[in-house]
Amino acid sequence: GTPTCILTDNGTHFTSQVTNKLFESLGVTHLYSTVYHPQTNGQIERFNATMDGKIAALCNERCTNWDEVLQFVTFNYNTSIHATTKQTPFEMMHGRQATLPFDQQHEIISLTQDPEHSRKIRTYLEKLVNEARNNIIKNQQQYKARYDLHRQD
Questions:
Q1: Which of 83, 92, 88 is nearest to 135 (CA)?
Q2: pLDDT digits (tens, 9 = 90+) for 101-112
Q3: pLDDT tens figures, 94-103
Q4: How many CB atoms lie within 10 A of CB 78?
Q5: Pairing of strands 29-32, 5-8
Q6: DSSP for 76-93?
Q7: Which of 47, 88, 116, 119 has its CA at a distance of 20 to 30 angstroms from the CA of residue 125?
Q8: What is the pLDDT of residue 38?
């Protein structure tokens, strides 16, 4: 659905009247990150750096076909295990691993709405979220410990 709030940098494509009118018409609160302070938007900056490298690896020499490789790069990103969460974004979102082209396909598909199955999926997703949260906290503690090694406070 439509987000209720968007955080962007101060690039002209985000500060234009057209963008502001669009956000206003959708009822979206538009927040700006601090100028010359990329850490404010660090998560997306890291994501962009990752995607840039992957797109560049698949693009032609002049990078004119980036739009043709974007779907493959996005699928790769979403089905790769991330170091911090130790899980794939796809599984975190859908509660199951993605079916890859080379995976064996099952011929029997059940579309029943079994309440027990729904409960199991909900429990499994809660478990994934808790594991991801614990992995994120552990990762943050490691970053803090590494940072504190060089502090003289």
A1: 83
A2: 777 666 666 666
A3: 999 998 777 7
A4: 16
A5: parallel
A6: HHHTSPPTTTSS-HHHHH
A7: 47
A8: 73
